[in-house]
Amino acid sequence: MDILIYLLAFAVLLGVLVTIHEFGHFIVARMCKVHVQRFSIGLGPVFYRKYDKQGTEFALSAIPLGGYVSMITNKLIELEPEVKNQLSEEQLQNTFDSKPKWQRAFIMFAGPLANFLLSIFIFTLIFFNTIDPQTVPVINEVNDKINISSELTFKENDKILSINNTVVKDAKDINLELLSYAGFSGDLNFLISRSNNEGPINIKVSVIDFLPTSLSQDNPIEYLGLNVVYKIQPIIGNVLPGSAAEIAKLKSNDKVFKIGSTNINFADDIRSVVSENPNTNMEFKIVRNGEFLSIPVSIGSQADSDKTIGILGVSFGTTRTLAQSLSKGIYETYNLSLKTLQFIGKMLSGNMGTENLSGPIGIAQMAGNTAQAGLLPFMYLMALLSISLAVLNLLPIPVLDGGQLTLLGIEAIRGKPLPEKAENMIYTGGAVLVVMLMIFAVFNDVSRFF
After folding, report:
1. Can 22 be counted among the known catalytic residues?
2. Rounded to two decimals, what is the model's pTM?
3. 22, 57, 90, 423: which is the annotated catalytic residue?
């Protein structure tokens, strides 16, 4: 049963990503009036085909590891003259290579663009339908590994706000930002919020050949000598109907900073104070829309095992509007695309290990694991892989979209295409490189089982 789940999850994941990518090429080719001979999901022998009114063959092929859009070109007509008999006069005049360079470039770029748009759509959907937990990284422990190049040092309970001006909220943010500095020598600037300090403070950490090993890259913040926990900020999310919070007129997005005489730093502080004070009237000091308010709250109660605990009736974290979700979806896609490109560069330079590079077996494993975890984790993986597919396809490697865009650029500079022999050599080299990369990724997949 588990194997079936993994296979189905892999088929759905790869099927959606490839279909969206190839549809990007297809729809823009149609807009430019280039005839598409075949739109195939999968490679190799075709086992199902259907034709539309324009004569395009929509096919499912035997090897589920990619897809392609085959467009009519002058070279194809030269090699297969019989193709002319299947095309109208208008189609013969609208071959791919007869189009202006900007249209050909747009057709090539449309595949990766479709994957970027898919990622934005998925992230927007996820962010709109989930609560933003409003977490903040809090230093739990500091050891002597850190080389501080400023007068101030880290302390327990410091909140990390940003690293080199990049805002961080959770483990993903911190790991991505620190990993992007693998191999770096210099200063990392940590912006810190500290209790009883009027404003944020900056701490410079000196690093030399940062994160030099794969082991150190597994937990970058620990390599610095910091143990970090992620705590929820004391921002009210939902207020339960009929609860003590609703009766007191507490509202979503209220930020609690004091209850009675107790200062509140995190959501856990609220839970602790409320739990210990059942059926008690307490004053909540909050910030609402930038205004400081004092609100009396009569805390409720609930029996729990052998004692009575206080109940407020709120959840923490905030909801996002559609506009906020879209904005965050666009930023997340941009940020992860940039990080993917940086990590590829660091793998090539040797500053980052290549053992995390996954092939079809690894992707199938991730697909099955996330599918069993739920729809949202599976969709999140789809968005991540959609970004990876887009970025990889834009690399200047012949046979990939980026390689063809590069050749178009060379053609624009030269005023004519490269000689056919040179193009064939370049495409052969690109194909060999892609096959070698695939073999290496599969080797990585297999080696994880031993």
Report:
1. yes
2. 0.86
3. 22
